[in-house]
Amino acid sequence: MQPMSPPKRPPAAxxxxxxILVGSPxxxxxxxxxSHNNIVRTAILCVVGALSLIVFFKRGGEWLPSLSSSERVxxxxxxxxxxxxxxxxxxxxxxxxxxxxxxxxxxxxxxxWERLRNIAHDMQPNAKGDPSDASVGPFAWYQENYxxxxxxxxxxxxxxxxxxxxxxxxxxxxxxxxxxxxxxxxVGSSGDASFEAAILDDISSGCEIHVFDFGDFAQTVADxxxxxxxxxxxxxxxxxxTEGRYKSFTDTLSELGHVNRTIxxxxxxxxGCELDTYQAWLEAPVKLQQILVEIHKHGAVDMFQxxxxxxxxxxxxxxxxxxQIGNICVEYCFVLLSPKFWTTE
Length: 345
Hints:
Blueprint: H1 25-31, H2 38-58, H3 69-84, H4 95-100, H5 110-122, H6 138-144, E1 156-158, E2 166-168, H7 171-175, E3 183-187, H8 194-203, E4 208-212, H9 218-224, E5 231-234, E6 237-239, E7 246-248, H10 249-256, E8 262-263, E9 265-268, H11 274-283, E10 287-288, E11 290-295, H12 301-309, E12 312-319, E13 330-336
């Protein structure tokens, strides 16, 4: 066996006072050990040994010659992760979540992501019986069909409580992109810009927000959003084709220069236009990361199926019972995942 290399010089704080090694002659002379006090000697040796270990570990192993400082950090980090029950970075992979969410979820470990995926798969088909059965009343239909199938760790309500506020999946992920890359579409206003104001306050004041409504609410929206230069009001509605006070989704993207961009939040509450325009959302040259839509019509089977086929998962469902007399109002929130997420092996 090769002899152990001599220990490194102690830290500057200990210079001039080399460590007293347990069992050394210097320790015997210092304490005054003799052959007649072995019991006391043994006890003191144990205490000094324990204190030496405490000092050693608290100083991060300064007297351990075989480990570099980076190696000590790695050992320390691994021990901390093991002690907390969390997987260390070396044993935790986020690649699967990133791949199956197109990069949106970049910090979910593989085991947790697989659990989320299994839950979503177990929810399929996300309907009770035949969702096309016209004999089921509209209120019962939305009660029995299309429940949330995916969970966002940090889902947050943006905007007011009650009507007007919306649930957003992990808004901090949008914030981390930086204000310059944050793009929000809000279709349907009726003069209420509380959601848009909350986007600026809770996510990023740098978000570029476009509000669409054929009503004359430009001044109202500006007042409610603090006259932010990043909020733009467009006095036209969304339709399947451009005509009169309406424009198609594709023409809207082209006019505003948003072709091939990512719209981080696409909020649409247009009193029924959702069923006439959803195909255009999915076919347009743009990526809609989240879709927050209030559905007003009965039996939107094709819409739900089309969104599912495009990779969208329902992460929130909220019946709007405040205005349900004679109307169907159900808030649905979707987050875009890769079609691979839905693939069964």
